[in-house]
């Protein structure tokens, strides 16, 4: 069987899982898809748009509200400004959008929900009422609850500010920027600010009876960047592929990597952390594996986007119900798929660089033994992820740069003897020698003449 084609039994298993979630949680409709290598490897919709047996069936082209997944698009658009040299992440928000009371919050702090800005608006529940302008929102007034940088505090209002920043930087609405610079290049033609074409209405399901209540839907005005967008399984699958690294000409790969790093931990006292926030993206620790994406909720809708960083496999999901354990329930589909459809190992080929052979083998940092290996284009000292093990990339003749772990961003220099042979490795002042404390290798602090005793 072609390794890129899922086993039909996997599809049937996921179909049953999704159908059970729709039935057991009493959801009018659900739609979900698994993304691998930039395409939908499995997709399914269950239920009807109005929740009734005779209603119109949901399908994979049905629009749902994505809620706060909208924030990931706003964040990428802001990072494009940074990459273009038009702002710095350490800039105070006031530099770009004057007149608010967001204090000295930086762009990075707003992106990562570390600015201390109030979570919600001061007026009526913004998700169920028509929204006003940025000036009206600021005059309400918008305040900080905590000192900027102190802690994680999720803020919808903070993303309203970032949407205003985009509008002022480009001279057009935040959505016009997102549509032109992100949606169009990625072919996401069914992603809009209001429902178009076939779209699911939002419902509240009564907690004690099988009856429904329609949820209102309005233009959120200045708050729209926090959660306004509508989309489909197919469109959000393209965004999952983007999160997995298929950024094309939209964003530099290094910038995406910077965005999905855990910047601020969502700390709950007494519990181990399982979720952090990057620059616009949520980061989950799932049994030692890292997933990135975002959840979304608006009255009448729940949505999810998750991508396993190591494999690149992703999950997109929607339902048109206000509340319920939909997110945790549907997220297991990604784990089920990865367990049943493991990626085929790539064949090994001899493609190493023979010029680094004199750097490999045993080294000693003081009395500590370390092994240097060549893995692809990288020099690896120790085991990355264990102790101070790190990978290094060549940046010049005898110059390397740390890629992860303790030595991330730190320089490694090859020290050679007059005859060109390697004498030692100098890693941010740590001297690695072929024998422990080699007196011929200029060990910092020197080596006593009596030697080992």
Write the layout of secondary structure elements.
Blueprint: H1 8-24, E1 29-36, E2 39-47, E3 64-65, H2 70-83, H3 93-96, H4 107-111, H5 134-138, H6 156-170, H7 174-183, E4 203-205, E5 212-214, E6 230-231, H8 233-243, H9 253-259, E7 264-265, E8 275-277, E9 282-286, E10 289-298, E11 301-308, E12 314-319, H10 326-340, E13 361-365, E14 368-375, E15 378-381, E16 390-396, E17 399-402, E18 411-416, E19 422-427, E20 430-433
Antiparallel strand pairs: 1-2, 1-12, 3-6, 4-5, 7-8, 8-9, 9-10, 10-11, 11-12, 13-14, 13-20, 14-15, 15-16, 16-17, 17-18, 18-19, 19-20
Helix pairs in contact: 1-10, 2-6, 2-7
InterPro entries: AmpC-like (IPR050491), Beta-lactam-related (IPR001466), Beta-lactam/transpept-like (IPR012338), DUF7586 (IPR056008)
Domain DUF7586: 354-434
Organism: Intrasporangium calvum (strain ATCC 23552 / DSM 43043 / JCM 3097 / NBRC 12989 / NCIMB 10167 / NRRL B-3866 / 7 KIP)
Question: What does this entry look like structurally?
Answer:
- The chain starts with 7 loop residues before the first helix and ends in a 20-residue tail after the last strand.
- Helix 1 (8-24) runs antiparallel to helix 10, helix 2 crosses helix 6 and helix 2 crosses helix 7.
- The chain is an alpha+beta fold and 453 residues long.
- It has 2 domains: 17-50 and 60-205 and 222-340, DD-peptidase/beta-lactamase superfamily (Beta-lactamase, 3-Layer(aba) Sandwich); 354-441, Lipocalin (Beta Barrel).
- The mean pLDDT is 94.
- The longest helix has 17 residues, at 8-24.
- The chain has helices spanning 8-24, 70-83, 93-96, 107-111, 134-138, 156-170, 174-183, 233-243, 253-259, 326-340; strands at residues 29-36, 39-47, 64-65, 203-205, 212-214, 230-231, 264-265, 275-277, 282-286, 289-298, 301-308, 314-319, 361-365, 368-375, 378-381, 390-396, 399-402, 411-416, 422-427, 430-433.
- The strands form 4 sheets. Strands 2-1-12-11-10-9-8-7 form an 8-stranded antiparallel beta sheet, with helices on both faces. Strands 13-14-15-16-17-18-19-20 form an 8-stranded antiparallel barrel. A two-stranded antiparallel ribbon has the order 3-6.
- A hairpin with an 8-residue loop joins strand 15 (378-381) and strand 16 (390-396).
- Helices cover 23% and strands 23% of the residues.
């Amino acid at each position: 069987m072609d390794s890129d084609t899922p086993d039909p039994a996997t599809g049937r298993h996921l179909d049953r899982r999704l159908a059970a979630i729709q039935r057991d949680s009493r959801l009018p409709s659900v739609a979900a898809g698994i993304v691998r290598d930039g395409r939908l490897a499995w997709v399914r919709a269950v239920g009807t748009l109005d929740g009734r047996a005779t209603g119109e069936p949901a399908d994979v082209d049905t629009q749902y509200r994505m809620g706060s997944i909208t924030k990931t698009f706003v964040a990428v658009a802001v990072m494009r400004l940074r990459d273009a040299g038009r702002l710095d992440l350490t800039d105070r928000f006031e530099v770009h959008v004057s007149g608010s009371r967001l204090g000295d919050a930086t762009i990075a702090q707003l992106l990562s929900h570390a600015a201390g800005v109030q979570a919600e608006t001061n007026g009526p529940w913004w998700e169920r009422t028509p929204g006003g302008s940025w000036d009206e929102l600021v005059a309400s007034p918008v305040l900080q609850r905590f000192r900027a940088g102190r802690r994680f505090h999720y803020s919808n209002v903070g993303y309203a500010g970032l949407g205003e920043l985009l509008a002022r930087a480009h001279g057009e609405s935040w959505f016009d920027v997102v549509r032109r610079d992100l949606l169009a290049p990625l072919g996401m033609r069914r992603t809009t600010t209001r429902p178009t074409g076939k779209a699911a209405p939002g419902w509240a399901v009564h907690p004690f009876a099988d009856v429904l209540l329609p949820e209102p839907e309005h233009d959120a005005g200045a708050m729209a960047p926090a959660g306004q967008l509508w989309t489909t399984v197919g469109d959000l699958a393209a965004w999952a592929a983007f999160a997995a690294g298929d950024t094309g000409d939209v964003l530099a790969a290094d910038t995406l990597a910077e965005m999905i790093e855990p910047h601020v931990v969502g700390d709950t006292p007494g519990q181990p952390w399982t979720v952090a926030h990057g620059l616009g993206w949520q980061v989950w620790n799932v049994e030692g594996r890292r997933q990135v994406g975002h959840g979304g909720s608006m009255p009448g809708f729940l949505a999810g986007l998750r991508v396993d960083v190591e494999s690149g496999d992703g999950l997109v999901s929607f339902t048109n119900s206000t509340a319920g354990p939909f997110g945790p329930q549907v997220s297991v589909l990604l784990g089920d798929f990865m367990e049943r459809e493991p990626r085929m190992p790539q064949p090994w080929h001899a493609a190493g660089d023979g010029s680094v052979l004199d750097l490999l083998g045993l080294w000693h940092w003081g009395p500590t033994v370390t092994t240097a290996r060549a893995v692809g284009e990288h020099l690896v000292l120790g085991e990355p992820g264990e102790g101070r093990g790190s990978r290094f990339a060549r940046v010049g003749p005898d110059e390397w740069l740390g890629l992860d772990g303790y030595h991330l961003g730190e320089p490694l220099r090859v020290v050679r003897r007059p005859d060109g042979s390697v004498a030692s490795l100098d890693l941010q002042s740590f001297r690695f020698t072929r024998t422990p404390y080699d007196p011929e290798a200029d060990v910092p602090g020197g080596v006593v003449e009596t030697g080992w005793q």
